[in-house]
Amino acid sequence: MGFPHPSHERETPVLSKYFGDPEARTLAGWRARGGYASFEKALGMDPVEIQNIVKDSGLRGRGGAGFPTGIKWSFMKPDGKTHYLCCNADESEPGTFKDREIMRWTPHALIEGVAIGAHAIYAETAYIYIRGEYSEPIRIMQAAVAEAYAAGILGANAMGTGKRVDVHIHRGAGAYICGEETALMNSLEGRRGNPRIKPPFPAVAGLFGQPTTINNVETLAAVPHILREGAEWYQQLGREDNPRSRGTKLFSVCGNIARPGNYEVTMGFPFGEFLNDMCGGALPGREIKAVIPGGSSVPILTREEAENTFMDYEGMVASGTMLGSGGVIVFDDRQDMVRQIARLARFYAHESCAQCSQCREGTAWTTRILERISAGQGNARDFDTLLSIADNMTGKTICVLSDSCATPVVSGLKKFRHEFEAKLGPDHSRGVVPVLLTSNRTVAA
Amino acid sequence: MSTATNDVKPEVKMVSVTIEGRTTSVPEGTTIIEAAKTVGVLIPHYCYHPGLPVAGVCRMCLVDVEKFPKLAPACATTVMEGQVVSVHSEKAREARKGVLEFLLINHPLDCPVCDQSGECELQDYTFQEGRAESRYEEPKRFNPVEDFGGDVLYVPNRCILCTRCVRFMGDVVEEPVLNVSERGDRAFIGKAEGHDLTDAWAGNVVDLCPVGALLSKDFLNKARAWELDRSASICTGCSQGCNVTVETRDNTVVRLKPRSNTAVNHFYLCEQGRLDYRWINRRDRLDQPKVRVDGEWRTVDWEDALDAAAAALAGKRVTVLASPNCSNETLFLAERMIARQGGSGVFRVMLGAEAPLRGVEDLSLRAERAANATGARLLGYADLAQGAPIVNANDVLLVLDDVLEGELPTALTGMMSSGAIVVHVGTTLPAVLEGRAQVALPTTNHTEEEGTFTNLRGRVQRFLQARTAPGLARPSWYVMSDLVERLGAGEGRYMASAVFDQLAATHASFAGLSYATLALRGLPVIDAAERDVLAPTVAV
């Protein structure tokens, strides 16, 4: 299958095998495709055994950070405390829409992965935190959870084993920052979605102060396949010369590309072939100029850099960027990079939670400078100021939103400086620019 | 608050850490910012406050910790054995410079008209290590001033979103009226609709605010911080005995601020104590000694007035009606007089509603609205509400600064109409004594003299002089000392410290204390356990 296009012959559909197949959405359809066998198997296993299989498979976090999942799970010890599993389905990274398709087409795959994950970390309760804008996936997930409860798969007596596994769907309210794991926990608790200071780490004191593990949708959805096919099967997927990135990865491709959509390839797939063959390359008569390979928070690549990159954690780092969430944004020669980067900065300025000084003020300042340059009123000083602000915003805050805003600015200025320079206008030195005083809110008298 | 000193404490593991080249040993779990204080290093910070939960949001206290890849927030990082911390490394200074620049881009440079100017941490740190000039060329964000109710104004343009006020209202007052509204640089401190900062303790947000974003309406545009003279004192608003700083401008009290004392009021002061200071500046003071001659008041010099008072008192039983806002020293000398001449001492105390600060143990606006009722009790004075003493026509009624305003209780009017001679020692001459008193001796109020009060937990605390005495007024203990000497009840003592030390030598409940060791934090009269047993039985 495949959606919206049939799977390309060079794809390796594991998670996306049933994308576009409405029957896979139902419990009966999912069972007919081998669903919930892994969960049943997992319930008969010791959690440590499951942790070890996942460790051996080489599965790493698909949300962006790439932390080995089995090791993350092994932080959770049977200490008598209440444990929680959170599934991060707050897929808000611009350019990323892979989790959406998993939830839309194979909701039971996620529920099964969540249920196995909960058992593997000694938790009886799991929350799936879905971003508020995902109306259709939320509806589908809710229906699937109801089905699973009705069939006795979830609940106090999961699959008749006497073990309790509860899965709750929580709908977010539309804040990018709630995808940050500690902000997500605050949001689940009913607080303002502000990231927390670490330590304590979630595995020590997370949701409601209890040991908590947070995993991405794609990560958890891969777990049933690993349990069914074995760690060795997953371990052999991927490029031979890089043993550290294994398995398949979903990439969401958008922007100026012939065939946008989700593609599932094995780790280490050559990015050039991916873009030009699988995704059909640039639109007719145009040329790809730049690619953001892993969601808007990672450094931008030029086309040449992208074409010489392998699509796995290490391959991306070797090219000076990151795998991130796998959201590929393609820009062609008609795009104005200054405007695009200004737009990205505006996004981060809008979504900053306002806790840390650097982020609250830095994202907004960066945006204002970029928009001024974009409007033809930039001056040569602005480049140094932008880089200096970016430096002050990097590595100094509670979470990485601030760094994420600085990243495209720094890489953009480095790689597309000529476009910035072409925009410079007459030097509006201080005192000439009118100071606008605008109120952005009204107060009742 | 009493700290039980003889409790066996669990062994605390000490950790050795080097900060700015100075090694110190602190209990495990101490944060770097607190550890630095022990070696005399103040790490610049905004959101951190020792009385509030750690937020770690201003990122001003970032320090360089050896072997850490990134700078660490000193407020949220606990010390580890052998850790080496650099506060002033190039990296840390650059980071702070960056934070200061970010905080200033939307901050108006209106220091010349800002009340916080001169005591503003943003101003201080910017002068200390900020950039000399701004690189910000864009328009500044603007939001209108908002009335937060109570005594508080919010100036959002100056706000640096440190959230101290939000955490104070949420975690200390336990009335989460304030919040951070909106996101990004559009964020501001929001107030829950329909709620105001009317809690008895809400005014502390003004002191907690490190910049000029939260202002006191009472102090608005009244004085510049650098024009003020400051003295350590004790609030007389209730029996809690909160430590305060009296701030005067041109000899006029313009503001009371809490003075930190973790044994009493931590960092806080209630609205009642904070705003009730205008009486201190009242102009209708008794400022010259007066004696009634042939039914007419005559202004005389101190020697004649004291002689007249001594003559009136000599050989008579004396009933002392003392204000519970008199110092321990004054009350002690009056008690010596009673001991010599016979008689009794009473006081009356105004009562009001309690208003506890929920997040702090044993801190409340107390029902007894006077500073030294406990001291009076310890020195043998009785509460007039418990019964009036019998005053005969042959006795002398010594009114010790009771202002006698408002409707007087029948017990008091009975005493007044007994026909006894009235000698008045006080800050004002009450209207009811205008035609009744024989001698009127002017005294200073607690901001014009020094002395001690005993709070309701038996803590003896010193207050210092903050303004000059009006006219010829003298400290009340000084006047009483003169009288006591004239009556042969003791030697004259002309230093508050000498009077207190005699008090400590005379009264068992004050035993072991000395004026010098009280210092500015005070000491409890006796052990918590003993106090309740001994206090009621102290005989005059």
Describe this structure in words.
- The complex is a heterodimer of chains A (445) and B (540).
- In chain A, helix 5 (98-105) crosses helix 6 (107-120).
- Chain A has a five-stranded mixed beta sheet with strand order 6-5-11-8-9.
- The model of chain A is unreliable at 431-437 (pLDDT under 50).
- In chain A, 41% of the residues lie in helices and 12% in strands.
- By secondary structure, chain A is α/β, with parallel strands linked by helices.
- Chain B has 540 residues and is α+β, with helices and mostly antiparallel strands.
- Chain B has 14 helices and 26 strands.
- Chain B has helices spanning 32-38, 90-105, 121-129, 164-172, 204-208, 271-275, 302-313, 328-341, 373-378, 410-416, 476-486, 496-506, 515-518, 528-534, and strands at 14-19, 22-27, 62-65, 72-73, 84-86, 146-147, 152-154, 178-181, 188-191, 214-216, 229-234, 243-249, 252-258, 290-293, 296-299, 318-322, 343-347, 355-356, 364-365, 382-383, 396-400, 421-426, 437-442, 451-454, 459-463, 523-524.
- In chain B, the strands form seven sheets. Chain B has an eight-stranded mixed beta sheet with strand order 15-14-23-22-21-16-17-20. In chain B, strands 2-1-5-3-4 form a five-stranded mixed beta sheet, with helices on both faces.
- In chain B, a hairpin with a 2-residue loop joins strand 1 (14-19) and strand 2 (22-27).
- In chain B, helix 2 crosses helix 3, helix 7 crosses helix 11 (476-486) and helix 8 packs parallel to helix 11.
- Chain B starts with 13 loop residues before the first strand and ends in a 6-residue tail after the last helix.
- Mean pLDDT of chain B is 92; it is low at 1-5 and 533-540.
- Classes of the chains: A alpha/beta (445), B alpha+beta (540).
- At the A-B interface, helix 14, helix 15 and helix 16 of A face helix 2 of B.
Mean pLDDT of chain B: 92
Query: How much beta of chain A, percentage-wise?
Result: 5-15%
Q: Which structural category fits the helices and strands of chain B?
A: alpha+beta
Largest interface: A-B, 44 and 44 residues
Q: Helical stretch count of chain B?
A: 14
| Percentage of β-strand residues of chain B | 15-25%
Q: How does the overall form of chain B come out from the CA principal axes? A: elongated
Residues in helix, % of chain A: 40-55%
Total E-strand runs of chain B: 26
- Count of helical stretches of chain A: 18
Strand order in the sheet with the most strands of chain B: 15-14-23-22-21-16-17-20
Rg of chain B (CA only): 27 Å
Radius of gyration of chain A: 23 Å
Biggest pleated sheet of chain A: 5 strands, mixed
Q: What is the CATH architecture descriptor of the largest domain in chain A?
A: 3-Layer(aba) Sandwich
Shape of chain A: globular
Question: Which segments of chain A are poorly predicted (pLDDT under 50) over 5 or more consecutive residues?
Answer: 431-437
Could you list the spans of chain B in which at least 5 consecutive residues all have pLDDT below 50?
Answer: 1-5, 533-540
